[in-house]
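Morning run. Coffee first, then this:
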Amino acid sequence: MTKNLLVQIAYRGTNYHGFQFQTNALSITEVVQDKIEQVFGRREPIIGCSRTDAGVHANSCFFSMKTDVPFPTHKFPEVLNRILPKDIVVLSCKEVPLDFHARYCCKGKEYLYRIYNNPVKDPFLSDLALHCKFPLDCARMEENAKPLIGTHDFTSFCNPNHKEGMSTIRTISELRFIREGDMVTMKIHADGFLYNMVRIIVGTLLEMEEGRIAHGRMEEILHLLDRSKAGRTAPPYGLYLNRVDY
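And here it is:
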């Protein structure tokens, strides 16, 4: 009897070329499928909730998988975690309706971007947070980001390689900054994200803090619908998929 499983995982993306399968590089999908095949005796296709880029991490990521292998669902995390590499872990597994799709049934996502804000770098955070030497003003960054909240065309904050014909309209419901000592975290929640959207938003706000882009220009940049008017794309290693809403 076929059942549809929804599997929650977390991973450190440093050693992988993103979640989605790549023909010429190691991905999270390939490693997970290899281990499932080792247990189930067959290679089951999996559907991810998001295509995280190379070097991006996930505190919570989901994939769905249909199988008719008679394997107890509650044992899935325990058995897979025995053989998965130390930088990937299965958090949970449950059976869902056959028509459930991990990507298309998603109603929203939350990302975190972590910035270590200290003149001296921390060697233990080299692939887990962006190092920023100059002081960051969280209140000012939130004020600069306010025009992004709501439903807009985010072409200015999208990689030009975004697939032609796909909508660039998204709705951001939350964007705020939290400081805990030297760690500054941007939390952003939306109904969906464009290619590199979060990283470009971070890069633009950092350039405002640096003085490369004038404060208060975010609304203008947003309405210009021109990627060249926004700031740089921040590195991937500060980015975490943190929550997925179903």
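Strands lie at 3-11, 47-48, 57-67, 88-96, 108-117, 130-132, 150-153, 169-180, 183-190, 239-245. Good start to the day.
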